[in-house]
Predict the structure.
Amino acid sequence: MTTGTAEATGVDTPGPASRPVTPPTGEPRSAALMRAAATWLPPLLTIEGLVMYVLALRVSPGPLRGVDVTQIDGLGLISALPGAAFAAILLMIMAFFVTIAQNTDRKFLLLFQISAITFALHGASALVNSEPRFHTAYVHAGFVEFIARTGESSPILDARFAWPGFFALVAFITRAAGITDLTTIMQWTPLLSNLLYLLPFVLILRQVVATTRARWFAALLFVIVQWIGQDYFSAQGFTYAIYLAFVAILLRWFGRVEPRQAPMPAKGRLRRLLARLDGLTPGELSHSTAVYDRSIMLILLIGLFVTATASHQITPFMMLGALTGLILLRRCSLSWAMPFFLGLIVLAWISYQTTTFWSGHIEQLFGGLGRILDNLQSNTGDRIEGSDPKHALVLMARLGICAVILLLAATGLLRRLRRGVGDRAALLLLCIPVLALGLQSYGGEIGLRIYMFALPGACILAAYAFFPNLPSSGADGADETVPIRKRNIRFDPRLTRRVSLLLAAACALVLSMAFLVARYGNEQFERVSTGEVAAMHYVYEHDEPSARVLYLVPLIGEEVTPTIPWGEQDFDKIRYEQVLVDKNPVVVSSVIDKLTLSPGNTYLVVSRGQAAYLQLNHGFPADWDKRFRVALDSSKALKRVYSNQDAAVYTLRAQPPAAQIPEPVNLRGPGDRSSPATPIGLAALVLAWAALFAYQLVRLRDADRPAKAGRVLMWIAAPAFIVSVAVIAERFIVIGLNQVP
């Protein structure tokens, strides 16, 4: 197998299809145009498919065109999409495969084609709906509004305020730009986020030893299997882009590839296995970069990590795991000082900046440690049980996509191993996120986060299931190497490559259709209508000095998120509480009792989205919404203060004499309590960070032989690190166990 030059460059050699063809003298222009069809046809088909898709979704409903949202059923948006939309997606995907079949790395065209497919898949909701999708996006907009209005965050109101980086950044930008309405931004954030994710992921793909077909097919897979919907207006969606950029910088500027070593005779199975792994051809590229450039990128790397740490709870741990794993597998040239440096940033932020949160929630912070089976159950079986039969197909489609991408990744890994290639970085990116199962269930969503963070590695390996060969070397070679086998090759390599291309295209088409089911399967209750937003705006107009909003739930629980566009304004004035409802819509006694026991200015919000959620996930009758509203209207104890086709707002007709409207929540709270050793810990933190950072700069100059200054810095950093961690532990014990109510 020829791999020498491929390992150094990883660049495909243009095949015959990429060489310019000089038409014979006097050849008709039409004939010359047809000979050049491989150049102009793919972009033309992509543009045609894009225009067809936009028209299919934006025009008024009719045969094979337009979307009638009232026709959406338990399968979600796919049940209402017109036939022209499916034809447009098919056209764009086929144009993409026509391009990669040419054995040329037409970067800008391929990036444009994948961006067009991303627009079709991830921008569908923005084209169909008039309001931003996903109810939690509205509460995040409320966080931004609160910070912009008050100039501070308050973990007393919500735990997410303890990680306010994303919300504070958006508040600063929008206030500086004079933007007060985030509706348009929220509407298009899913699409913009996925387009943003493509940039660092493509850079990651440029660091692996693979053919053009494998790289760009991995990029396509990354788009069509990203169904979990964490790309909405959220800190998670923002920090996921930071995570991808972090990994891309590690592989591009700090990547390390050791020369291939011949397997040495060794005793014992483990030693023989390790020797065989060291003898594999590296699946990654290394680049020589000047010390000055690497120093600048190191500072950027730290800046990205600090931003993620201040914005989200899980992302920095994923970044830290990727860095540590790459160093351990000898795929990163950074020293062990960096994991300790960055780990200390996470611990310091949790200890010193989120005290108001964890001082009253120690069990919530650490209670899920080690509960792997419980965390897994809360993310799989619990989400299928009790679902509507048709909607259960949506949940099964999601699990099916996960199973397919993992099966393809395993197949790709094996096919690369048969060619003597060790893809350590891709395998690491796939496996490291699984360790998060031992942390906590994260509100029953840790499985979704693990899937999202495992996608980069999974998509790279899955692409190898179809295109496992290495890029060729030499200017006149074929586009990829042919693996050496003990037996004679039975099939023509050109034929097998064409078959692989057809199988990859079929896989992409099937996954793209499954994506529409998995991503938009909850559209009946995740879609937000103008009427629901208007009902909440009525509450905002009547929330002085404070108010309460009751939302419908089938069971009382801590992790039940309101299925209403809640919290968009006045987050500090309104409290949101659950009210239990019965499958029998005429039973409204629980609602009346809850309103009677609540303080003045309490509103019950009934909406189409809540009814759809109850119907699809908890077996409520299909006409429950209408009959429930009739029962509420018939009650002499209630009065309807606002209503439209999609939502209604109710309150008591006569408030109890003792009902009072409480004052808003005290935003200050107890403050950041200190401990006796806190000043010592802060001083040790600064000293440890300075020494570790200086040590890493010294190692950038000479990674193999640390200078005397490096040894001195490590003697300073080690005790300072130990003291810092000890004080952090002391703060958890003193503040957490001696909490003052």
Q: What stands out?
A: The chain is about 55% helix and 5% strand. Strands lie at 281-282, 421-422, 547-553, 574-580, 602-607, 638-643, 647-652. The mean pLDDT is 85. The longest strand covers residues 547-553.
